[in-house]
Amino acid sequence: MKYISTRGQAPELTFEEAMLTGLARDGGLYVPAEIPTMTKDEIADLAGKSYEEVAYRVMRPFVGDSFSGDEFRAIIDRAYAVFGHDARAPLVQLNENHYLLELFHGPTLAFKDFAMQLIGQLFQVALKRRNDRVTIVGATSGDTGSAAMEAFKGLDAVDVFILFPDGRVSEVQRRQMTTPQESNVHALALDGDFDDCQAAVKEMFNDFGFRDGVKLAGVNSINIARVLAQVVYYFTSAVSLGAPHRKVSFTVPTGNFGDIFAGFIAKQMGLPIDRLVVATNQNDILHRCLSGQGYHKGETIPSISPSMDIQVSSNFERALYFAYGRDGNAVAQLMDELKSGGGFEVSRGAMEALGEQYDSGRVSEDETLATIKSTLASSGELLCPHSAVGVMVGEAQRDAAIPMITLATAHPAKFPAAVEEASGVHPPLPSRMSDLYERSERMTRVANDLGVLQSHIKEHIAK
Ligand SMILES: *Cc1c(COP(=O)(O)O)cnc(C)c1O
Q: Cis omega before residue 107 (within 30°)?
């Protein structure tokens, strides 16, 4: 299995190489050169299997020769053993034809654990075999950083440094980053906002001397291995509702488009998905684009679903690549326009192609709060604000004949202030992490200064 860049100008790579590289050298994102398919019988045969077994069968063709079958099985088992629910991704029913896929039973209570736990183990095995090590540096507004630290802690082939804006993440998010005691993970509280954190990371990647010196690697959501890990729960949930003999639809609270793009891959593989619905908050660039208004950046307005507060949706480039008939030059041109002019128009043909794959909806702050309240009353399910955005759109767009599955992307206890405001209920942490507030914290406050950051990282990587 080969991986090629959405901009068509970077070398073809294996799964392992694409995973360790992250961003392609031409600025594009890696996608599988061909998407493998599963027959109806192969999909039917997933019924009743464990999450790990389904993960193995769905992902195996993408991994190719990079890992042996036994190696890959062991990696999957280690990745998901730390989850707090035996089903890993349980499905609960909200009403007659609307289901919630709970993706928040991992160690940091957000769906990002599904991919991050897996690539932690994949990195460790690949780097050990190469007798190599890397330094992962990432910026986070909360969920990605905590998932990365949790996944990579204690793995001796990797050092992890996560930059977060000092004082601007929720207390649960901060504690999830500052309480792991393993010496290879480092929480850096930067004196600045999230954009400053991202800019600092970008500058480090562009400083080739530093980049090569510390062997910098990235695990943000453009990493193809992360996207592929997320394909699995589309299969487990659809099969539990009767696929391949029955169609299902999905609604996905969306920011960087990684999670919903995994649904697109599942559909290409042969899973009978009727509709893939993108749900956005007030930062609605994707909804505007899918409604035919072009792709134009605006101001990011902070919301109560902060993990979806984006103005440029990085994985949308992959959707465009397929919508433009795999034309890397066309994608490269759009991305140049985005960089120079802050936006672009989508061609009529590509709009039609996008329209065949995706629907969309937008939810205001008030509607988000009202959905948390009404869903608790009607089903007893307490939603996080991101999941509430999904449930509102999913409910509006579902039809009577085809089950709608909405992805619940985080646990309500990760966003207690908004949940309590909406419902009057303070969401408790799951018992397995109820001591989070007592654990001791470890973090370094750093100035927003590239030189200072780089010296800090150099001094603290294992030699
Ligand atoms: C990251 C995140 C999202 C958005 O996912 P994308 O793959 O970026 O579209 C939604 N909800 C939560 C809780 C998240 O952490």
A: no
